[in-house]
């Protein structure tokens, strides 16, 4: 018997037993064509059935048994090859992991504490830290139980109910910095945050800077020059850069055209960021030169827009500009803006303000955000101002025409309460129209304050001199600034109620007041916002009406009030300052100072109790800056929806948004925690009952 040399042509080591002698094997060589055909079929089907083997048998001239054995051997051979390949990969991975494991063990021998640079804690130190944390936790739990018991006493709810509110809000109670409670069925939850205004102000205004390097100043000047060039082009180019909205007639920026003319990357990278842009113009009763001086003085700038700007500072004057016309002046500034409600986020800007006189009687003032100071966390805001500002053109009659462009990039949609989300995202809340409307109203108010002649019947014989009127108007202006500054309630905690369609949670802050012009002691501020299915004008008329005041004002004690005198601050009859005497048997020496206004974007009614002897100081024309005043009031605005039409997706059609805010001075004993809790319970009851009375009087009780 001749043995084959090698296995070329053998059918995958296929063997067939000899029929003549047991144990003898006959080897069969397949041709290359047969092997090629078998390989092709194996790729398609590794397990051929009887029919396929019969077909191959006829096609290749082989026995079905031979084909069966070939496929069996081929499958075994393929499996072995795959296992060898897998073993090789596993061996490589195993060696790599062993090396990494060895490196980790060596690194653990030399590990250090990232905080102090010392050796890591051993088991003994770890146990001591654990015991310390457990002890602190037990102390906090004991404090929690004490304060929860106090809350339970004053709101009439068991402790378990209070704990369930905290759990539902996803936060535990922390009475060192804040708390929350809920009063009555359907009443909004309460959040408490005692804050020190001076500390909060310093944290927000980290603008104490060293000398700015010359290279940095040069970069600032280049940034301001580019911004004013872009702003001038934005004023000159109309369509297609600016598009007039068919719905409300406001001018909005065409983003595609803008990106082609002024290409730049987005400042915020998140998907929730958006760009707000708007343009508006109007005539104001003030000279252009005077208005430019006000804009470049941060204190006057803040006073001019008390309902928009809550804080403004000039950090450093980089270029003083030309004497007489301020052209070329460049300064680094900070401002904080806030409007309408605690539910609306404030906006903070570090920005450059640059002034240029482009021709006689015409100035352009541009604002553009700047990343400075980089070492402070205060500049990490959710707002970034793109080149914005105004063109001021003198009309040579004591008036000026102001064209305003507001262009910002913001990332606050997810942080804004749903009640105000549509309004804030509609380019109206912080848009150019609000600046123009506020500027016109404040200039009108200034004109009325400077009027030397006024009807004697307007004052009711109480205010007899122009000096007395101006002093009273200054006191009222300070009252408005105090109210709007309080409204942001920085650092507040929020525990939203389950249904937020028409109402928001009550928000409370407690502060120790030491500022001049305000009563000293602990002040509790509380605010809530709600939606009403009524136009803003109707809601404003309700709060201005003396006959309906007794329906909501607890100071009226159910009796009508009497308006002692009135000072007009504008052509609209609702724009005025009033001195109101409520019926309070135990307070014969107290009156209410109230200021109200209404414009195309909303309305405001602010009032504060004032002692008659203190008010006489202002009425007589003396300095009113030291008269203590603690205002409360109402802010009314549209809701961002059309007046008519189908209901919006959140179930509301056109209506108004009302913010109710109170401030109450409470005496402060040495231990103020219990006093704070008692005061919080009182103001929560006060604002909740006031809101219910307002809804009932306006036939809106079904909105709970």
Query: Strand order across the biggest sheet?
Result: 3-4-15-16-22-21-20-19-18-17
Distance between the termini: 105 Å
- Rg of Cα set: 39 Å
What fraction, in percent, of the residue positions are helical? 25-40%
Number of strands: 22
What amount of the residues lies in strands? 15-25%
Mean pLDDT: 77
**Could you say which structural class the secondary elements and strand pairing correspond to?**
alpha+beta
CATH superfamily descriptor of the largest domain: START domain
Q: What count of domains describes the coordinates?
A: 3
Architecture overview:
Residues 1-33 are annotated as: Disordered. Belongs to the HD-ZIP homeobox family. Class IV subfamily. Keywords: Coiled coil, DNA-binding, Homeobox, Nucleus, Transcription, Transcription regulation. It is found in: Nucleus. Helices cover 38% and strands 24% of the residues. Mean pLDDT is 77; it is low at 1-22, 164-208, 375-379, 455-459, 491-501, 644-652 and 669-673. It is α+β, with helices and mostly antiparallel strands and 704 residues long. The radius of gyration is 39 Å and the shape is elongated. The protein has helices spanning 32-44, 50-60, 64-109, 123-155, 159-168, 197-204, 214-236, 255-261, 288-295, 298-304, 418-424, 432-450, 456-459, 466-487, 536-544, 546-549, 612-619, 672-697, and strands at 10-17, 25-29, 179-182, 189-194, 242-244, 251-253, 274-284, 309-319, 330-337, 347-359, 362-369, 383-385, 388-394, 400-410, 506-513, 521-532, 562-568, 576-581, 590-599, 602-611, 632-638, 656-666. The strands form four sheets. Strands 3-4-15-16-22-21-20-19-18-17 form a ten-stranded mixed β-sheet, with helices on both faces. Strands 7, 8, 9, 10, 11, 12, 13 and 14 form an eight-stranded antiparallel β-sheet that branches. The protein has a two-stranded antiparallel sheet with strand order 1-2. Helix 4 (123-155) packs across helix 18 (672-697). It has three domains: 1-108, Arc Repressor Mutant, subunit A; 203-447, 2-Layer Sandwich (Alpha-D-Glucose-1,6-Bisphosphate, Chain A, domain 4), CATH 3.30.530; 451-703, Alpha-D-Glucose-1,6-Bisphosphate, Chain A, domain 4.
């Amino acid at each position: 018997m001749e043995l084959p040399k090698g296995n070329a042509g053998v059918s995958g080591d296929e063997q067939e037993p000899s029929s003549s002698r047991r144990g003898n094997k006959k080897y069969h060589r397949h041709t290359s064509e047969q092997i090629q055909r078998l390989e092709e079929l194996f790729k398609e089907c590794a397990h051929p059935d009887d029919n396929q083997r019969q077909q191959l048998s006829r096609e290749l001239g082989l026995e079905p048994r031979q084909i069966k054995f070939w496929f069996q051997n081929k499958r075994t051979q393929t499996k072995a090859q795959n296992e060898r390949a897998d073993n090789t990969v596993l061996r490589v991975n195993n060696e790599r992991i062993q090396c990494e494991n060895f490196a980790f063990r060596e690194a653990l021998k030399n590990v250090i504490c990232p905080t102090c640079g010392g050796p890591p804690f051993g088991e003994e130190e770890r146990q001591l830290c654990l015991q310390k944390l457990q002890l602190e936790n037990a102390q906090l739990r004991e404090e929690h139980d004490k304060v929860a018991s106090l809350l339970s006493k004053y709101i009439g709810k068991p402790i378990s109910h209070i704990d369930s509110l905290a759990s539902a809000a996803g936060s535990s109670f922390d009475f060192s910095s804040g708390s929350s409670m809920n009063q009555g069925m359907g009443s909004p939850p309460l959040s408490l945050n005692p804050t020190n205004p001076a500390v909060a102000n310093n944290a927000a205004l980290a603008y104490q800077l060293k000398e700015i390097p010359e290279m940095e100043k040069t970069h600032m000047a280049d940034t301001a020059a580019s911004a004013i060039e872009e702003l001038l082009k934005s004023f000159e180019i109309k369509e297609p850069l600016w598009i007039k909205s068919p719905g409300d007639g406001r001018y909005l920026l065409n983003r595609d055209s803008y990106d082609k003319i002024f290409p730049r990357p987005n400042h915020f990278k998140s998907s929730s960021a958006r760009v707000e842009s708007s343009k508006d113009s109007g005539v104001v009763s003030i000279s252009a030169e005077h208005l430019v001086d006000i804009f470049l003085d941060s204190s006057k700038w803040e006073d001019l827009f008390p309902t928009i700007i809550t804080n403004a500072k000039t950090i450093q004057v980089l270029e003083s500009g030309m004497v007489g016309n301020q052209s070329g002046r460049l300064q680094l500034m900070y401002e904080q803006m806030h409007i309408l409600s605690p539910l609306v986020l404030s906006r903070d800007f570090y920005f450059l303000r640059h002034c240029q006189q482009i021709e006689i009687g015409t100035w352009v003032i541009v604002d553009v955000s700047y990343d400075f100071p980089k070492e402070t966390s205060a500049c990490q805001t959710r707002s970034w101002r793109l080149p914005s500002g105004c063109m001021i053109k003198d009309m040579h009659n004591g008036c000026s025409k102001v064209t305003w462009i507001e262009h910002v990039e913001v990332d606050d949609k997810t942080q804004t309460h749903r009640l105000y989300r549509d309004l804030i995202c509609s380019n109206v809340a912080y848009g150019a129209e609000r600046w123009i409307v506020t500027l016109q109203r404040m200039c009108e108010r200034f004109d009325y304050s400077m009027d030397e002649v006024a009807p004697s019947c307007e004052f009711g014989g109480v205010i007899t001199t122009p000096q007395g009127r101006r002093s009273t108007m200054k006191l009222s202006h300070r009252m408005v600034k105090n109210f709007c500054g309080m409204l942001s309630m920085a650092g507040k905690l929020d525990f939203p109620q389950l249904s937020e369609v028409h109402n928001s949670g009550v928000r409370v802050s407690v502060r120790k007041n030491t500022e001049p012009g305000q009563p000293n002691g602990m002040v509790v501020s509380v605010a809530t916002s709600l939606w009403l299915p009524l136009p803003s004008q109707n809601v404003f008329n309700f709060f201005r009406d003396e006959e309906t005041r007794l329906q909501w004002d607890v100071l009226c004690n159910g009796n009508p009030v009497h308006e002692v005198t009135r000072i007009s601050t504008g052509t609209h009859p609702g724009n005025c300052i009033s001195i109101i005497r409520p019926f309070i048997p135990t307070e014969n020496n107290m009156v209410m100072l109230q200021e109200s206004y209404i414009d195309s974007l909303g309305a405001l009614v602010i009032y504060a109790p004032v002692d008659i002897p203190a008010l006489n100081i202002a009425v007589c024309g003396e300095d009113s800056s030291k008269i203590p005043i603690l205002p409360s009031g109402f802010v009314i605005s549209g809701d961002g929806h059309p007046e008519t039409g189908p209901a919006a997706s959140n179930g509301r059609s056109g209506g108004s948004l009302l913010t109710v805010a109170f401030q109450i001075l409470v005496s402060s004993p040495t231990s103020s925690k219990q006093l704070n809790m008692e005061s919080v319970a009182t103001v929560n009851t006060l604002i909740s009952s006031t809101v219910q009375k307002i809804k009932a009087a306006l036939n809106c009780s079904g909105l709970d």
